[in-house]
Amino acid sequence: MKKILAIALSLIMVLGLVACGGTDEGTKAAEGTTAAAESQSADAQGSEAADNTDGAPAVTSTDKVTMIWSHNAAETTAGHQAALKFKEAMEKYSNGNITVTIYPNGQMGTVPENDQALREGTIQISSGTTGGLVDPSLSYFDCPNLVDSNEQAKAMMEHDTDLYKYTQEKYEALGLRMLSIVPGGFRETSSNKEIRSFEDLKGLKIRTLENPIALEYWKDWGCTPTPVAFQDLYLALQQGMVEAQENAYDTIVASALYEQQKYIVNTHHVIMWAGMYMNDAFYKSLPADYQELLNWVVLNVYEPFLYEQSIKANEAALQTMKDAGLEVIDFTAEDYQKMREAAKPAYDLIAQTVGEEAMNLIYAAQEAANK
After folding, report:
1. So what's the pLDDT on residue 111?
2. What is the pTM of this model?
3. Which of 7, 51, 151, 195 has the fewest CB atoms in 10 Å of its CB?
C-alpha cells in the first residue's frame, strides 16, 4: 500500500510539473522520489522477512519431503515436547515443503525395532538414550560418576568438542547421523533401604539395566544387581523381589515407581543422554539448504528447549516425590569419589570395549568440563 501511494504521489508531482512547464530536472526528481519509495518498501519487506525467520537460514528448495519420527517416550515428556518444537520449526521455515510426522509411545515398535527401522530407512528420525545398549562402541557414555551436574555434562558434548565429533563418526559407521545429544538429568536411586553413604550401598538388591557395564559397577559397589523387565518393575518392588531401582526422577514418577519406595538417594551415578538420530543416507539425500535448516533448528530450537524442559521435568518430579513423603538423601563429594574409585573394574571393562582413543577423549572432555 505504501508503494502504491508513493507512486501515485509521484505521478501527481510529475503532472503538476508538466502543467507548470517543469524541466527535465523536475521529472528526474520525481523519478528519484519514486525509486526511494520503492527502495524503502523493499527494505521494509526484507526486514519483516528477517524478523519472521528468527535468523533461520534461507530455504530456496521446493522439494516435498516427509520425515517420520518414532520414539518410545510418553507424550507428556520433555523429549516428545521437544520433538513437536522441531516439527513446528521445520515445517514453518521450509515454507511447508517439509512435513514431520511423530509417533510417540512406541506406536511403531520397541526401542530395538525403532533402531532397526532407522538403520533400514523405514523411519527417518528416532530419539532416546545413547550408550552401550545402542552399540558396544558407544559404551563410554556409561562411565559412572563422570560429572556432578547437568552443566558439566552439557559442556562435554557441545557440538564443537572432539568428543562430539568422534561420537558422530561412530554413529555414521552404524549408518546413522547423530543430530544431537543432550543431558537429561542423572539416573538416581530409589530404595526401601536407608542409604546415607557409599558404604550403605553394600548388600543392596537393586534392579538395573541388563547391560554388562551397569551390572559391573553395581557389583563393584557391593550391591546385588538384578535385571528386571521395566514393565515388571513396579510389581517386583511391590513384592520385594528387589528393594531398589535406578532411573531419572521423571521416569520414576511417570511410572509411579515411587509409590513402592521410601527414599530417593542422589547417587548421580550416570547421566541420561538424550540422543536424536537420522538415517544417514536420508540426511545426505536432502538438498543442501534443507540440511542447513535442519542443523540450525536442532541447535537453536530443539536442543535449548529439550535441555531446559528436562531440568524442569526432573525438578517437578522430585517435588512430587517429596510431597508423597519420600525422604531425599544427598551423597557427598567424598561418596561420589569413592563410587568412582570402586568402579575401576567397570572402567576397565569400558576401555576394553571402546578402545584407548575413546577413553582419552572422555577424560579430556571431563577435565575441560570440570574447570
Report:
1. 84
2. 0.80
3. 51
